[in-house]
Structure formats: structure tokens, C-alpha cells
Amino acid sequence: MEYRERSYRSRFSNDERRWFCVKFLESDLWIGVDRGSYRASMEADTYAMLVDLRRQMDAYLLMDPQYKTALTPYDAGLEAPNILKEMSRVSHKTGIGPMSAVAGAVAKKVAEFLGTKEVIVENGGDIYAQAASDMDISVFAGQSPLSEKIGLHIPAAEFPLGICTSSGTVGPSLSLGRADAVMIVCKDVLLADSYATAMANRIKTVNDLQSVIDRISDIPEILGAIAVKDDRMAITGRFELRLFK
Fold first, then answer.
1. What does pTM read for this prediction?
2. Which CATH number, 3.30.160.20, 3.30.420.10, 3.40.50.150, 3.10.520.10, labels domain 8-243?
3. Contacting residues for 8 by C-beta, under 8 A, at least 6 apart
4. CA distance 117 to 182
5. What's the confidence (pLDDT) of residue 124?
């Protein structure tokens, strides 16, 4: 099921940061920076950077089409852009294909390019965040009655972080499961993105929630997680659960 309106972005907009949107091909970025760092050229500069990054990636993928379709760990060639090599690195940890980390990888590269004191880059539900204040992050879970009703409270001291969500019922991304949402929090946003897909692949019914959460609990790089299927959820990690109206 593909959704069109990214209404969950309104939760990010209600703060003191300056927000802008940058889109190119499949990349649809919602970016917030601290007001002291914002400059008028930032949107155009970020768009130019994103275009260049995507063209480098796509040029390599034309030469190595197996990289794009691999469902298991796959190494990028020596001539590949660094971003694809970083995605290959995390694929060996999560056990699935490197494209599972692409949204998080792009978000991280954009954040590094901006180099601001505070920056939040949201890319289709996958977030790289460097924040100076606490954040409450809700889980978008499509048609589940829990969608945007639950989430995690993340203290400022924990940032920077990757906060990534995968779903088998929402959006165009490939998932082998039927989870409404699996949110994963890691220090490494690429790892969070890939693990979110890997764990969502394992959820077919509500009966799978506990075993997946137990598996997540055994992975030290995962700092927190929420899994949602229908009207049920499971949670693990060091962050407090938040309920939203």
C-alpha cells in the first residue's frame, strides 16, 4: 500500500528549527536546521548536492545492476561511490541487501553536507537527527489503529542518532513481511535503516512480534525499537514509550 500525504511531517515542523523540502527522483527529504545556521541558499545548495550524489550512485548501479537487486550482503566495487561502500558494510551486519540502507545513507550524507549545529533529515520515514533538545518520535504505521499514536521519547544527550522505520503494508519499498511498522534506533543511521527492513521482513502476523523483539533485544547496536502489526505492538530498548492523541 503506497501513501501519498506525508502528514507525519507536521510533528517535526512544530518547533524552533527552519524546515525545507528537497526532492530529486525517489529522494524526498524534509530537512530542519537550527535557525542560527540557516541561510537563504541552503535549499538550492542541498538540491545540487543531492542531484550530484544520486547521479554518482545511479551511474555505478548501471555498471553493477546486481548491487541494486541483491537481497543478501553484497560488496560494492572499488570504483563505487563511498556511500554504496558504506551501505555494503552494514549489509554484512544485517544479513540483507545493501539497498536496504539507501534512505538512511542519503539522509546522513545530506546532514554531513549541511554541517549545521542541529540538523534533522527525514527521508521517507528514515531519520538522521542531531538535536540539542529532547524529541518525541511517533511511529507511522499506515492503517494500524496505533499509527502515530505511539512512539519513543529520546533525550537530547543521545543524539546524533538514526531513527528508521520499515513496513510491509505502507510505501513502495520492498519488504518480505507484513509488519505495519518496525522502528529501529541506532547510532549508525545506515544500520538502523537496514535493521528496520531486516526485522520487518520477519513479521507476517501478530504472533511474530514477540520473537522479533526478542531478537532485536540481543543486538547491542540497536538502542531501541517498536514493532507494530494490526492493533498490537512490542517494544524494547532504553527509550521511554510515548502516547500521542
1. 0.91
2. 3.10.520.10
3. 125, 138, 140, 148
4. 29
5. 87
Helix axes 42-63, 82-94, angle to 10 degrees: 70
- Give every strand in the sheet of 150-154, ordered side by side: 135-138, 150-154, 240-243
Tell me which amino acid residue 47 is.
Answer: Y
Digit-coded pLDDT (tens) for 19-32: 999 999 989 999 99
> What integer pLDDT is reported at residue 56 of this predicted model?
98
Which parts of the chain are beta strand (E)?
18-24, 27-33, 119-123, 126-130, 135-138, 150-154, 161-166, 181-186, 222-229, 232-237, 240-243
Structure confidence by residue, pLDDT tens digits, 61-94: 999 999 999 999 999 999 999 999 999 999 999 9
Give the position of cell 558494510. Answer: 89
For residue 178, give every residue at least 6 positions away whose Cβ sits within 8 Å of its Cβ, in sequence order, or none: 168, 169, 203, 204, 205, 229
